[in-house]
Amino acid sequence: MSLMNDLSEQLQRGKANEVKDLVQKALDQGEEPRTILEEGLMDGMGVIGEQFKNNECYVPEVLIAARAMNAGITVLRPHLVSSGVKAQGTVVLGTVKGDLHDIGKNLVRMMMEGKGLEVIDIGVDVPAEKFISTAVEHNADIIACSALLTTTMTEMKNIVDKIVEDGVRERFKIMIGGAPVTDGFCETIGADLYAPDASSAADVAVQHCQAKAS
Ligand code: B1M
């Protein structure tokens, strides 16, 4: 069995220590961090997601797999973040109201911090008011919202509407992302920036902050 398959399987079994060791082993063998993330960790989580959908596994198994994923990400973290020129900018990041998924959001934070952005992570199940009050308080450049459920992505529209209602629409760019979110949805709800994955979320945020500064 290849190392990436092994990693995926150990993640599916929720074996956090084994996952950590295999991530380290893959790094020692010169495997690209992005390959380890996508072909090992995310592959395993994808299998769990399918089983979950088909009622072949339940919330406890998913949580244990999520814990193993986080353990693997901890080892990968210093290798995933780039050490390029530091960008200036502040991002308020959270998972929208009604949604408790945070693994993708945490990856987005990691990538953004790796690019030198200041990230204020306000957690999960965050109401529109909290995104906006935190952005005002910290004079942020970007409000970044993650959603994993088709039922909670509509909350992103509430955030856009609330920011208009509060009269601060021009102060912040609104970035959205998460598995069910698309560029088209971004346009439909009147948000500004969309990114399909954590790495491009960091790139898009940096581009915006650099353009604003120049
Ligand atoms: Co949930 N869950 N879950 N879950 N869960 C999904 C999302 C689901 C697709 C599973 C399935 O049915 N196949 C399904 C959603 C279906 C739908 O809406 N169409 C689902 C469901 C239904 C539910 C519950 C309703 C189940 C229930 O209770 N009956 C429930 C909801 C709870 C709630 O939120 N209110 C629930 C609960 C849970 C757990 C708590 C058990 C656990 C979350 C643990 C945690 O996050 N701490 C969990 C998990 C782990 C999943 C799956 C298996 C994995 C999600 C994940 O972490 N993926 C997921 C199935 C799947 O995705 N295959 C599933 C890995 C992560 C790296 O990817 O988050 O997509 P992702 O992030 C990506 C991109 O999307 C992007 O970057 C990341 C990678 O680079 N991205 C951004 C994310 N945010 C971004 C923001 C950006 C830009 C990019 O800019 C701001």
Summary of the model, kept short:
With 214 residues, this protein is α/β, with parallel strands linked by helices. It folds into 2 domains: 80 residues, Methyltransferase, Methionine Synthase (B12-binding Domains), Chain A, domain 1 (Orthogonal Bundle); 124 residues, 3-Layer(aba) Sandwich (Rossmann fold).
Structure description:
The protein has helices at residues 3-12, 16-28, 33-53, 59-80, 103-114, 128-137, 155-165, 183-189, 198-213; strands at residues 90-95, 118-121, 142-146, 173-177, 193-194. The chain is an alpha/beta fold. Strand 1 (90-95), helix 5 and strand 2 (118-121) form a beta-alpha-beta unit. Helix 1 packs antiparallel against helix 2 (16-28) and helix 5 (103-114) crosses helix 9 (198-213). Strands 2-1-3-4-5 form a five-stranded parallel beta sheet, sandwiched between helices. Helices cover 57% and strands 10% of the residues. It is globular. The model has no long low-confidence stretch (mean pLDDT 93). The protein has nine helices and five strands. Bound molecules: CO-5-methoxybenzimidazolylcobamide (B1M). CO-5-methoxybenzimidazolylcobamide (B1M) is lined by residues 42, 45-46, 48-49, 52-53, 59, 62-63, 66, 98-105, 107-108, 144-146, 148-151, 175-180, 195, 197-198, 201.
Lay out the secondary structure.
Elements: H1 3-12, H2 16-28, H3 33-53, H4 59-80, E1 90-95, H5 103-114, E2 118-121, H6 128-137, E3 142-146, H7 155-165, E4 173-177, H8 183-189, E5 193-194, H9 198-213
Helix pairs in contact: 1-2, 1-3, 2-4, 3-4, 4-5, 5-9, 6-7
The structure holds CO-5-methoxybenzimidazolylcobamide (B1M).
CO-5-methoxybenzimidazolylcobamide is lined by residues 42, 45-46, 48-49, 52-53, 59, 62-63, 66, 98-105, 107-108, 144-146, 148-151, 175-180, 195, 197-198, 201.
